[in-house]
Design a protein that fits this description.
Radius of gyration: 25 Å
Number of helices: 1
Structural class: alpha+beta
Largest sheet: 5 strands, antiparallel
Strand content: 35-45%
Shape: elongated
Helix content: 10-25%
Number of strands: 12
Length: 162
């Protein structure tokens, strides 16, 4: 079977027309993939949740606070994980504990701070610990529909002393 010049010309023209379309599609796809990594995910469906820097309560207790603000009729479910920050070549943060919170807001409520107090043992022999927590949340609207869970957001690291 032989290829005629007109068939070959159309084939090349068709391929050439696809190059700009594919290039734009690949660039758009890369931008779409990169966009969520750049986004701050502490605001969703009318609620904002921020893990605050932990506060040393002296002794062996630390308050891992979370600031929550929602507008309208909303219920927010928050997952929290607490860690002792490890440094060094074999970095493996020590898990201290986890908590779940359900907070309901109506249109008259303002922001509130949740207090999550946990015992922090002296895991390092040098006397101090570095601690932080991460939170993720989802929101239920006034019709009873839950959003997806947000990505985990990390608090600033705090030094606590024993």
């Amino acid at each position: 079977m032989s290829i005629t010049p007109t068939t070959r010309t159309r084939s090349i023209r068709a391929k050439m027309a696809l190059v700009p379309a594919l290039t734009l599609g690949l660039l758009g796809g890369a931008a779409a993939v990169a966009a969520p990594a750049q986004a701050n995910d502490n605001h969703r469906d009318g609620c904002t949740v921020d893990p605050l820097k932990p506060t040393d309560l002296r002794g062996k207790r630390v308050d891992f606070k979370i600031k929550v603000d929602c507008y309208g009729e909303r219920t927010v479910q928050i997952r929290q994980l607490r860690y002792e920050d490890e440094r060094g070549p074999r970095r493996s943060d020590d898990f201290l504990g986890g908590s779940n919170f359900y907070e309901h807001f109506n249109r008259h409520d303002g922001a509130r701070t949740l207090h999550s107090v946990d015992r922090v043992p002296n895991l390092d022999r040098r006397g101090g610990e570095e601690v932080y927590h991460v939170v993720s949340f989802r929101v239920r609207d006034d019709r009873g529909h839950w959003s997806d869970w947000t990505r985990w957001e990390k608090s600033p690291v705090a030094d606590v002393y024993r």
